[in-house]
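Field: sequence (string)
Field: structure_tokens (string)

Example rows 1 and 2, in order.
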Amino acid sequence: MSQPKQIQTLPPIEELHRSTPLSTRTGEPQRPIVAVVAAVASYAAVAVVMGVYALHWWRAANPDSYATSARLIEWVAPEPGKWLSLTLEGVLAAASVLAAGAVAVAGFQAWNGWKWSRWAGLVGLLLMGGYAAITTDPAYIALGLSLVTAVLVWLPPMTTYFRRWAQVRAERPEAYRRPGWIFYGRLPRFR
């Protein structure tokens, strides 16, 4: 009697592991130096905005220098202490918060690997440009730093970094599996 024919098969295909190289220290994708510089530049821009706004308040506290404390105040020329000057102070405070907040969010979210931080960097750059236009010349330092952030998040190392973060976020942890039986009371080994 003859033996049955064996089916010819190919060896199994190697499984492709598209795992992202993670840092042994943080468990996150390795940050490129570009991400570090972009985040530091955004935080430095926020510090400059805080300094510019503090300088404005210092000048605005004295009635002699109030008229030149910011370009917006120069353009409108309100009388100090009246409702229009108080409204303009509110506008300058809101502009400071918006400009600094947008740039800070862009730098922080680029550090965290979110791709939308690229667009946040551009929005922050526009808001910082508007802020520099209505305040004083030192605000252009913050504009330059936010330009650095907005440019760096579009570089190729950041594209790779964002892709790696997307892969890490796409991996789902193993779901909780409810046990079939749960023992209540004292364990038998302790009776």
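Row 2 begins here:
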Amino acid sequence: MNKMAKGAIASGVGVVLLVGGGGTLATWNQAQTASMGSIVSGDLNLEVNSATNIGKWTNAAGTVVDVKAYKVVPGETLTYTQDLKVTLTGDQMAAKLAVTGTGVNTTFLDKNVVVAPTTIKDGVKAIAADDVLTPSVNGHVVTASTTFTFKTSTDARDGAGAKSYEFGGVGYKLVQQAPPAPNSL
């Protein structure tokens, strides 16, 4: 085979490799920016509304009590009530109010104290403890109430003497609920 034929074959193989391997041949393409606009985030916030209520404790009779000096006995119920300002903005915003820190700083046994789910009032409208809050309460001052019941079924002297329940770590939090998943039925 002569040099010309070998050169032509080598050139042909090179061209095939360039074309087959993606080489330098270009295809047309076009890019265009879209006018999508911008988006702004919503908000979720919870504040103690000390202007209207700094929080208070009442017993089952509705009498305001000072928990620092109060001596609780089995069968009693104490309720803490606090006004909270709620911020909930966002087209799909939903949240639940939860009580935090119960049972953390206590020498009472769990079997002797029951913490009821927190109830909420928006004005005069009651909201169940497991209800989801929506932007319809945005900017409202809601009243949260949490009840601690010291059970009558306490055994012998469980909880007697110097048992204590430190309420300083008890608080409230808003927990956002995830929006529905796309295409969920």
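free_text_note (row 2): Helices lie at 3-20.
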